[in-house]
Amino acid sequence: MMEQRLFDEEINLFSIVSLLRRGVASIVVCCSVGVLIAGIFLWRSQPFYQASAQLVLATASNPTQLDPNAVALVEPREHVTFRLQSPSAFDQQTVSTCSGGGVATSEQIAHNVRVKAPSVPSDVVEISFTAPTPELAQQCVAAIVRGVQEQQTSVASDGLERLKSKISSLQSQLAENSNLLKQAQGSEWQQAIYLATRDDAIALRKDIADLTAKLELGKSATLLSPIYAPPNPASPTKITILSAGLFIGFVTGVLVNLLKDAYVIQRNRRRRPKS
């Protein structure tokens, strides 16, 4: 049983090799035609270039019981990537920049933009865009980055304004204490007022310093590296297209030979005289 299986496999392998040898001319012709068609496609198709940028997202103070100086992203990375998938994320200025003097819509921009969130570092997103020229791709990525930065600044502004308001209020209280001491100078109540407001002033200065430090912990969204667009087009790729043309030509040549052999066998059967 094992010997019969090996014998059948040898016959099948011999048949395949024999088929390829008999039809080598037609296979070469089909492969040449496939590569030629792929070359014409590359010549006729419009190249597209891709520009990309790595953006460090904005952070703000997010104190915890274990770490009062902890910081966190003003919005999760998932929110940024999800928002940039929607056409509504792109304002008219971005659409105008990405059009390159032509006609473009926010739907087309959402289709051509790609946003990735690498595993590390956890505060970076990679934004890329494809366009007919590398210059236009760079301009569009710059416009998209600007929109993200403005959105992040808007999200962080509420928390920053609250911190600034608290600092301003504490500074006003500290100024009132200082004015009270100035008014009491030379009077018999100066010593008593000083002792009464001393601890208050120390606590106010400490709170102001803490809030100022938290205010300085926040950072706006910045580029990790300059926007870059390689000079070579991202699509279509020559190797991929030519390899596909060669493969399709080879498969077509094999199928042509199979059909040719099947036709010859069928014709011989019809011509064979009946006993």
Number of domains: 2
Mean of the pLDDT scores? 79
Tell me the distance between the termini.
Answer: 35 Å
Count of alpha/pi helices: 8
Question: Biggest sheet, strands in spatial order?
Answer: 4-5-1-6
N-to-C SSE string, H for helix and E for strand: HHEEEHHHEEHHEH
CATH class category of the largest domain: Alpha Beta
Shape: rod-shaped
Structural class: alpha+beta
Report the uncertain regions: 1-11
- Backbone CA Rg: 36 Å
- The second-level CATH architecture of the largest domain is 2-Layer Sandwich
Number of strands: 6
Query: In the CATH scheme, what's the topology name of the largest domain?
Result: Bacterial polysaccharide co-polymerase-like
What is the makeup of the main sheet?
A: 4 strands, antiparallel
Task: Kindly describe this structure.
It comes from Rhizobium laguerreae. Keywords: Cell membrane, Membrane, Transmembrane, Transmembrane helix. It is a single chain. By secondary structure, this protein is an alpha+beta fold. The chain folds into 2 domains: 50 residues, no CATH class; 190 residues, 2-Layer Sandwich (Bacterial polysaccharide co-polymerase-like), CATH 3.30.1890. It is built from 8 helices and 6 strands. The strands form 2 sheets. It has a 4-stranded antiparallel beta sheet with strand order 4-5-1-6. A two-stranded antiparallel ribbon has the order 2-3. Strand 4 and strand 5 form a beta hairpin. The chain is rod-shaped and about 140 Å long. The N terminus is likely disordered.
